[in-house]
Amino acid sequence: MGRTALYRDLVPFHTACAEVQLDAEIVILRMPDGRPRRLSLDGVEALTIDGCMRAQDERRFVRMLLLERSPANDVLITPPEHGAVAPNVVRLPEAPKDAAILEPTAWEALADWVIGGGRLAACTIVELARLSTIATSAFAVLIGEVAAQRALELAWVSRGPLRGGIDLDTALDPFVAAAQHSQRAAEALVSAFSHAAGATRRRRLR
Asked: For residue 159, what pLDDT is reported?
């Protein structure tokens, strides 16, 4: 009798990923063995490239975030088990053995932040919500404040008899969704509502 192959049957191994917390200019990693690593983002040249990593006697495709600085670079990659097997004839940069492996969603949020220049003002509310999931507690509060201001601007601009309108709750929906699985996103959401309430009171008093 045959049996249906499940997704987990198709993944031959699982690598241990580092936990990541982002502050404005610092990345704090907790490696799988418990060791902490602090990576300064100040003055780094960042780029993302396709690469490969040898895992379980196979070369597998990974995405690499390179933080270039003197005297040594830092490399953060996506889990190799999420990438297809890379044939030996394919020439790609090899990820170093000490590269930090991040969960795909955390890697994407961090890569977008660094490549984008690390500016909250340039982020959409969706991007801010995703960023909050890897933020430190203090940075999550700041992200919430920026998101609140962006949401209020959307709400105030869209008001009027001939406009569809958008309320604060709707504008902050990405944070509500992120908060369901992220404590930091929940902290950012609380910060956003608190900041929005204060800004609304100040606007009414003018």
From this structure: 54
